[in-house]
Amino acid sequence: MKAHIVGGGFGGLAAAGYLIRNAGVSGEDITIYEADARMGGGFFLGGDAQSGYNLPGSVFDSEFRCTFDLLSAIPSKSDPAVSVKDEFFDFNTRRPFDDRARLIDGNGRILHGPRFGLSWRDGFHLARLALTPEARLEGRRIEEFFTPHFFASEFWLAYSTVMGSLPQHSAAELRRYLNRTLHMFPYISDMANIWRTRFDQYDTLIVPLVDWLLKRGVNMQNGTYVRDVGLAPIPDRITVDRLDCERNGAVTSVAVAPEDIVLLTFGSQAADMSVGSMTAPPPPQRAGRSWALWQRLAQARKEFGNPAAFFGEAHICDSHWVTFTVTTRGTEFLDEMATLTGSESGRGGLVSLIDSPWVLSLSVFHQPEIIDQPDGTYLWWGYGLFPERKGKFVQKRMDECTGAEILEEALRQLRFDNKFKAIMASSICIPCDMPYVNNIWMPRAHTDRPPPVPKGATNLGLVGQYVELSRDVAFTIEYSARAAWEAIHVLLKRGPAPPPVYQAQYDPKALFAALKVFVCPRSARPRGPASEEDRAMKLVRILSYGLAAFAGLYLLAAVVYAIPMIAGLIDDKMAVKFDRADPSIVADYRNGLTPGQRETFYHLSQGSEILPWPLLTAVDVADPASTKPFVENLERFGLMPDPARNDGLPVGLTVSSNPFTSA
Length: 663
Ligand SMILES: Cc1cc2nc3c(=O)[nH]c(=O)nc-3n(C[C@H](O)[C@H](O)[C@H](O)COP(=O)(O)OP(=O)(O)OC[C@H]3O[C@@H](n4cnc5c(N)ncnc54)[C@H](O)[C@@H]3O)c2cc1C
What we know:
Blueprint: E1 3-6, H1 10-21, E2 30-33, E3 46-48, E4 52-54, H2 65-71, H3 84-94, E5 103-104, H4 120-131, H5 148-151, H6 154-163, H7 171-181, H8 201-215, E6 219-221, E7 224-231, E8 240-247, E9 250-255, E10 261-265, E11 274-275, H9 289-300, H10 316-319, E12 321-328, H11 332-341, E13 350-353, E14 360-364, E15 378-384, H12 403-413, H13 420-426, E16 427-434, E17 460-463, H14 477-492, H15 508-519, H16 532-566, H17 595-602, H18 613-618
Parallel strand pairs: 1-2, 1-10, 2-6, 5-13, 10-17
Antiparallel strand pairs: 3-4, 7-8, 8-9, 11-16, 12-15, 12-16, 13-14, 14-15
The structure holds flavin-adenine dinucleotide.
């Protein structure tokens, strides 16, 4: 059996990984066809320190279950003794985001208030959407479920600039996001449980995976575009029998046997991406190659869904971003940002300038961002959510701006006027136009995305972000990884099924965290840099919490002790009470002893004299609360009464006479 994978983005590479790990397919029987010169798709790394880097931003969380399952087996590039998964977990646990200025308004003020600006009504609307069955949300838009107050709230501004959602986008996708990310709600401002890769995504994810696959003999055909897929003429079946590949202008056909499998990546968020420079805007690209195959197949058969719901000129205004990567040789920008935001450089997460016409969001990376990044070079990144609008300081649409113009608008918006010249002189800003990056948010019908294995398919699976998986959110590598795992599992019926999608609405910890946002809203005090007073207050708060916790524990212990005491289950004398034992239950092992001999044996002296008998019996009433002589009241010491004796001595003690003293 041979496996043919079309598309070498994370989805295609993950598919090869699952074929080897889960389905026992030999690497040598797997071929990946990738149109671009390099594998990686949406996780690219372009340029260099001299001409300026170009890369995507980074948003992950700890519940990328399919992804981390695979990455636990892949050695990282920075340290092959550590897996990519461990690198991820270690970095994000040690250096979580601590964003102290998530949103900044047009007056340079940090926007942060109780309940993230949500009213109880907004909360109700969020809950209503999260609880509405997805089938009732087909084709519906987010704006149908909320009031203008919600879209002006801190919550929405912070959420939408991380996740990419807009009011006109899919209500069904937002519902999925809400249920998938409920546990992140309390951290929507400081981003503390939003994760990133230790190094850029290409170095962190793509390079190690490609190396691992190459070592196992996987055949990677870069620069190979699959133009068409031949289907065998079998009624009601979808069986691929041919791939038409274009390489260096020449077209060749690859025969596919019925027992082989073909996994196609349908479309790409990075479709028609184009890159500019400091002096040139990104040239518009409208080739449509990444979804041409999907379009061709969908025209022939309805089982392949509807690419027109996501791709095509009409959608670009709702799915378009311009990103920019700044490579700088000075620390002026990083220093200014640290002063403005109060966040430690590299831990600040995203800073969104909410009143900028492009709605710019910026992020200073943990340095070095790239493994081979030269010393003295620093990287930061940003994007505009509305690139078709004109800037405030640069009166042009963002997608028509050069890198220098985008950098100028960002610096003016930040009011870094004093350092403007120095930053401009030491920085290279590379703009990158992405017309379809946000199109997974387009309102859709259930049938617009085909399932990982279309109805009737015998040897064809679909991977990537444009297949229909239940519950998961599509703007993630997890979605592509899950689609690949699912397709392989259904087609080959080998290995485990993919783990269930994390659903925060069923996780009590996540529910509690989300509830806390409403019930115990955070302070309205603007965050930003911590003052001496802040630090002193923090210490006082920690001490007060410690004291309260101690008092609470003490109180709890007192209650736990008091309940059985009051109920009479224990008394404070801690006395042990025995009934007199029943001699009839003593077992006879028929060892030849008569009852008399046995009694004598039981009560023989073992040689240790404790007290003279007259002395012991002279202590008559040792316990003032008792009228009994001391020897008849030994139960209070926990000693067991001896059924065969009437002198009061317990089991284990006896009376004997001393042959020397005759006492
Ligand atoms: C700017 C940006 C930032 C992102 N940030 C994050 C993030 O922080 N966290 C996260 O989880 N996800 C993020 N994503 C999403 C992430 O990139 C995708 O989830 C992931 O890369 C999708 O992988 P894929 O293989 O399905 O598709 P892609 O990465 O898009 O790769 C598809 C590949 O298939 C190739 N291809 C398509 N058709 C053909 C054909 N007919 N013949 C040959 N080759 C073909 C394309 O050339 C492309 O390389 C981001 C995406 C972008 C674009």
